[in-house]
Amino acid sequence: MQQVFSKPKSMKKDFRYTFCPGCDHGIAIRLIGEVIDELGVREEIISSTSVGCSVFLYDFLDIDAVEAPHGRALASATGVKRARPDKVVFTYSGDGDFASIGLAESMHTALRGEKITAFCINNTTYGMTGGQLGPTTLMGQKTTTSPTGRNQDYYGYPIKIAEHIALCDGTAFSARVSLDTVANINKAKQAIKKAFQVQLEGKGFGFVEILSSCPTNWHMTPEEAHERVRNEMMPVFPLGVFKEI
Fold first, then answer.
1. What is the pTM of this model?
2. Fewer CB atoms < 10 Å away: N or C end of the chain?
3. Per-residue model confidence as pLDDT tens digits over 37-62
């Protein structure tokens, strides 16, 4: 039992937990850390993370990292990978960072088929900056900048990130997973490993969208937030693999 619950070697021994209670970022980062160790690439890893809750990745993983401006993680990662093609490069972003402020960088990195692995935490809001409407905010969802709820005439529709990335010719793997149950956490880990493997095999761009709860900005308990992921997010953002080469 001690081995089952031991901390991955890639994770720092001493750190201050920087996420809100019930946030799924901690689970996602642990899964990434476990996969890095299982693949044996810790010493070859370079990560790029930009502004948002995702920036706290540096507090948890004991790996080389570059901090990028908001939305520019994949632009920074592209430079790193092209300068050091021998390294294993990945990005970790929120949905606003990846699919709004950084949408051009994200799409064109996939279109170019950069051999990079990217993870996007989709919690349907800008978590760090106050819970504003984001690119994946659901129809009718109330946020600090859509107090009456998202409507199509004013705000348009939420973007389905994994499906859009799958359409890019340079994408080798695109999937959407969730962290709401143990079974889905195990499937998420498999997708995370596959996204790294397509980079290691030189196939192209690997991407995983991770549905995550945000109890603080949703004004819910952690249990209620996971129910929302299942009952409201998954019907709009179905889980699955959308492209695999």
1. 0.94
2. N
3. 999 999 999 999 988 888 889 889 99
